[in-house]
Design a protein that fits this description.
about 325 residues; Rossmann fold; 7-stranded parallel beta sheet
Length: about 325
C-alpha cells in the first residue's frame, strides 16, 4: 500500500484516535489539527504522526494545512451545543469550509463522517438536520473524491456511551430510561476505522455513502439490559413513558454538563439502523457488542474482586 499524507480534523476524538493509530501503523503520514496540542501529546508517539495547533474553522488555516496532502479526513462532530459550539457551525458550515479548502489546496480526496439518518430535509433534531446539511455539501462536491460514512452508535471499551450506562448501573438498582424502544445497530470503532482505511485504498468508493452498522439490532432498553448482564449485575431497567422522557430531557438539558437534551430525545425518535450495511460492501465482517464488550466488562469484574480481596487481606 502506498504511503499517503493525510490531514485529520477531529483526530483527537474517540473515533479519531482509533483511526489515527490504524493509519499511522500502516505507514501513512498523519497530521492532526487541534486547538489544544498540549492535551494530546500521546498522538505524537505514533509513527509519522504530528500535532498542529490550528483553528479548524478558519478557511485560510485549512487551506495552508491541506497543501501537499493526499487526503483529508473530517471526523468533527458534537452531541450537545455549548456557547461558541453550535450544531450549525460544526456540522453544516465546517464541511463547506473543508471542501473549499481542499479545492484551493489541491487535496483531491476527502473522507467525511456523517451520521445514520442524517437528513437536511426532514431531520427531526438539529443534530441530524445539520449532519444532513454537511453531508449534502460534501457529496455535491463532484470535483473532489469524496466518500461519506453514516454510522449507527459507535462502541468500544473506551467509549462514552456503554461505559456511561455501565457506571450508572453500578450505582443504582433501578435505572429509568428515556425512549426505551429506540432501535440501534451499534458498530465497533475498529470496524469504522477499517472502513475509512478501505476507502483510502480503493477509488471505487469515491462518490459513495456507506451506512455502517453492527451485526445486531437492539432496542435501547435491550442494550442497557445486556450491559448489566455483561457486568454481572442484576438491575431493573424501567422504560419511561413519552411524557416523562420529554420532561427528563428538558430538565437534564438545563444542567451545565449535558447528559440528555431535547435534541437527543428528538434524535431517538428515528431508528439508527442500516437499510444496507456498508461494512459488508467493503468486505468487513462487523463485530458484535458482546464479542468486544463482554471480555472487557468481565475483566472489570475480576479486577474489582481482586481489589476487594486485597482490601480484606490488608485489614486482617
Amino acid at each position: 500500500m502506498n504511503s499517503k499524507s493525510i490531514c485529520m480534523l477531529g483526530g483527537t476524538g474517540f473515533v479519531g484516535r482509533h483511526l489515527a493509530t490504524r493509519l499511522a501503523n500502516r505507514g501513512h503520514r498523519i497530521t492532526v489539527l487541534t486547538r489544544h496540542p498540549q492535551r494530546h501529546r500521546d498522538i505524537e508517539v505514533l509513527p509519522g504522526a504530528r500535532l498542529v495547533e490550528a483553528d479548524i474553522h478558519d478557511p485560510t488555516v485549512l487551506q495552508a494545512q491541506f497543501a501537499g496532502c493526499d487526503a483529508v479526513v473530517n471526523l468533527v462532530g458534537i452531541l450537545h451545543e455549548y456557547p461558541g459550539q453550535t450544531f450549525a457551525a460544526v456540522h453544516a458550515e465546517l464541511p463547506g469550509k473543508v471542501t473549499d479548502a481542499c479545492r484551493a489546496a489541491g487535496a483531491r480526496r476527502l473522507l467525511h463522517m456523517s451520521a445514520l439518518r442524517a437528513d437536511a430535509a426532514q431531520g427531526p433534531s438539529q443534530y441530524l438536520f445539520t449532519k444532513g446539511a454537511g453531508e449534502r455539501k460534501v457529496m455535491e462536491s463532484r470535483d473532489l473524491g469524496v466518500t461519506c460514512f453514516k454510522p449507527s452508535i459507535i462502541f468500544a471499551p473506551n467509549d462514552n456511551f456503554l461505559n456511561q450506562f455501565a457506571n450508572l448501573l453500578k450505582r443504582v438498582p433501578v435505572l429509568p430510561l428515556a425512549c426505551p424502544n429506540a432501535r440501534f445497530a451499534p458498530v465497533y470503532v475498529g470496524d469504522v476505522a477499517a472502513a475509512f482505511e478501505k476507502a483510502l485504498e480503493d477509488d471505487a468508493t469515491i462518490g459513495q455513502c456507506y451506512e455502517l452498522c453492527g451485526p445486531r439490532v437492539y432496542t435501547f432498553k435491550e442494550l442497557v439490559e445486556d450491559t448489566a448482564r455483561m457486568l454481572g449485575l442484576k438491575r431493573r431497567v424501567v422504560g419511561l413513558p413519552d411524557g416523562l422522557a420529554r420532561l427528563q430531557a428538558k430538565i437534564f438539558g438545563m444542567l451545565p454538563v449535558k447528559l440528555f437534551t431535547m435534541d437527543n430525545y428528538l434524535s431517538l425518535q428515528v431508528d439508527s439502523v442500516c437499510a444496507c450495511n456498508g461494512l459488508e460492501a467493503l468486505g468487513i465482517t462487523p463485530r458484535s457488542v458482546e464479542g468486544i464488550m463482554a471480555p472487557y466488562f468481565g475483566n472489570q469484574r475480576q479486577r474489582q474482586r481482586y481489589d476487594a480481596l486485597r482490601q480484606t487481606a490488608s485489614r486482617d
